[in-house]
Amino acid sequence: MDGRIGFQDRLKHLWLSRSKGVIAVSERVRERCWRTAEVIGNPYRTDLFGLRPGVKRDCDFAFLGRLVSDKGADLAIRTLRELLNRESCQDEIGLSIIGEGPERGSLEQLATDLKVDRLVRFTGSLRGDALADCLNRHRFLWVPSRWEEPFGNVALEGMACGCIPIVSDGGGLPDAVGDAGLVFKRGDLNDMVAQSLRLLDGEDLCRQLARAAEEHLKRHVPQKVAERYLEVIEAAVAK
Over 171-228, what HEC string results? Predict the structure, then answer.
């Protein structure tokens, strides 16, 4: 977590040095761990996450993740408050916080203190069809992680359900969204607000990102990812 190299990490590096092929889940992991690795992003569950025509998209922003400080749910609440202060936001907008964790109480108090508690809905933990249905109801997905995520499957899941992701630039999140989402500086509230306003004020931009999502998601279906893994494995065996 603090960037130091421990004993177990040295053992991993020793093992990697003996390997004929190494796969990293994102460019950031490749840069930090093994520069000659082949980058192959994660797949997402295509059997669960996808567009559901019968679900009405009547909500604005969603946050999905464990309610701990590393995931940045407080930034989502603060961004909502800032957006409501802008003249360009004529209509009230809402936020759904999907997940559970030890900081739920303090997040609920933060929403009350910022006077947005009636616009912030805490759904608790959702799984399976209930989660996919919930994501299908939202236009945008905030992924404001302070921690450098190795990849960020949540961005793919939201994108597959029709959400446009807005993610921090830490770790592998930019890889996870590709050209189909917006990226802001990690931990920077003002930049997160600015990128969110771009979507609220930009119908053309939203359509452009939605089109890009179709191609981006094709690269992360399980079969495609499995094929790329197999290529690396076969090349290693051939050596």
Answer: CCHHHHHCCCCEEECCCCHHHHHHHHHHHHCCHHHHHHHHHHHHHHHHCCCHHHHHHH
